[in-house]
Amino acid sequence: MSASYTTSKIPFEHYASQYRCCCNSVHVKQGTQIIAVIQTICAIFGLIVFVFSHKLDAVWGLLEIASILGEIIVLTILFLGIKKENPHFLLPYLIYESLMVLVSIGFIASGIFAFVDPEGRIGHVYTQVIDISIETNSEYKLNEETAVKLIAAFTIVMFAIATCVYIWFIHVVYKYYLYLRDLNQARANNDLSMRYSPKITVA
Fold this sequence. Notes:
mainly alpha; two-stranded antiparallel sheet; two-stranded antiparallel ribbon; 4 strands; elongated; MARVEL domain-containing protein
């Protein structure tokens, strides 16, 4: 009795659990496409608001336009990555979103400092941003302090939410990056895996 072995290819598991998101209900490709569309709409809306904004601080305006243009560029590359199924095209987006997480954490920290000490250095920055004139009477200073605390609290909440959203976006797109990497590796090997299938013959 002798044994011979046959091999067969197991198809690439496109819909494996590691390639799904939203409680395994959506494939990471569709999830990435949805994220790209949503962020593109938000970027275009932000650009329109920026263009038609009447009061605009020079420094903040420059930072805002740089952020919007940077987002549009990385989203364009992301769409190309989806179309070409090239995982490397997803890296600029992941880097950009990671930077946005750091920026958001910075704003949260500044909001905390301003809320705790409205008359401190960070508090004065918030005062300039909300364009409140500094007066000497105590009643106005109380109103100014309250305004700074409100803006600081709003900043903390909004950027905390933004941080969570950014992290979730990164999670989905990174899973899509892994999917494309594994898919391209399987295509390059042209032999996805080997399945052992004994075939018994009698000599």
